[in-house]
TrEMBL record:
The UniProt record lists the keyword ATP-binding: yes
Name under which the protein is recorded: Hydroxymethylpyrimidine/phosphomethylpyrimidine kinase
Protein family: Belongs to the ThiD family.
Top-level EC class: transferase
GO process terms (BP): thiamine biosynthetic process
Keyword entries, A-Z: ATP-binding, Kinase, Nucleotide-binding, Thiamine biosynthesis, Transferase
Length: 267
């Protein structure tokens, strides 16, 4: 069985962060592991507080996984401060794992910040160069590339700019645009476009976590970046189509719809 590690924040309400990542891994039939970088008291409506795990403990968790288990892919999510970023970067340098997917999480769906705004430079210098695939949404790509994005042409220009910061491929996600949900992939050579119609729902808590974890799962299984992104787009689209009206705000994506569809589980 392929083994995939998420290094991210914990969302106690279960829809995003580590919890969404592990659900996505299970739905892909890979063995999920988790290094918790921050504990976030959050729900579908708001972020109440964030407590970062100490850099020493972040590093020890990463050591505990890598000294024992062969890791086929790593997904990196919320890193709230430069201290967290340095701790993770130090260990990526030591273990140089294959198939690193970085989701540069900056805000929750309800607009609450999950990364210190001044940490963007550290993110660019310490984490982005380790990314085999970087998956910013439009606001995150705007911050990293330091430019406005109002069209697919802007997404492509930002992708080129961010690619030059050292990631091996970049997907800019179009969840925050209007019209069709268009994601673009740039691998330094070619652009690929993944497009679906926009699903009319407010229940999009965890879409980015789901998408990046699906890419990591498919890379672990040996797919190319292009095929992994194509399959992950299909997965996240279905997970949004079947998203759950849980909570008072943006409800979560749903990971086990296939099992329900075939009658293998009760609703
Ligand atoms: N309403 C929607 N309908 C269809 N696809 C969506 C919708 N919202 C987001 N997506 C897709 O979900 C994935 C995550 O995108 P996005 O929501 O922008 O990420 P994030 O959670 O980081 O903000 C992308 O593939 C995007 O195209
Ligand atoms: C701990 C944590 N990590 C990430 C996100 C963003 O989730 P998404 O962008 O997928 O909605 C979140 N709300 N909480």
């Amino acid at each position: 069985m392929k083994k995939v590690l998420t290094i991210a924040g914990s969302d106690c309400s279960g829809g995003a962060g580590i919890q969404a990542d592990l659900k996505t891994f299970s739905a892909h039939g890979v063995f999920g592991m988790s290094v918790i970088v921050s504990v976030v008291a959050e729900n579908t409506s708001r972020v109440i507080d964030i407590q970062d795990i100490t850099p020493d403990m972040i590093k020890k968790q990463i050591d505990a996984v890598f000294e024992d288990i062969e890791v086929d892919a790593v997904k990196i999510g919320m890193l709230s401060t430069p201290a967290c970023m340095h701790a993770v970067a130090e260990k990526l340098k030591e273990y140089h794992p294959a198939n690193v997917v970085v989701d540069p999480v900056m805000y929750a769906k309800n607009g609450c910040p999950l990364m210190e705004p001044t940490a963007v430079d550290t993110l660019i210098k310490t984490i982005i160069p380790f990314a085999d695939v970087l998956t910013p949404n439009i606001p995150e790509a705007e911050k990293i590339a330091d430019m406005r994005i109002t069209s697919v042409a802007d997404m492509e220009a930002a992708a080129k700019k961010i690619y030059s910061m050292g990631c091996k491929a970049i997907v800019i996600k179009g969840g925050h645009a209007s019209g069709n949900a268009i994601d673009i992939l740039y691998d330094g050579k070619d652009f690929y476009r993944f497009e679906t119609s926009r699903i009319a729902t407010k229940n999009t808590h965890g879409t980015g976590c789901t998408f990046s974890s699906a890419i990591a799962s498919q890379l672990a299984k040996g797919l190319s970046v292009k095929d992994a992104v194509e399959k992950a787009k299909d997965y996240v689209t279905k997970a949004i189509e079947h998203s759950l009206d849980i909570g008072k705000g943006n409800g979560p994506t749903h990971h086990f719809y296939e099992l329900y569809k075939y009658g293998l589980r009760d609703e």
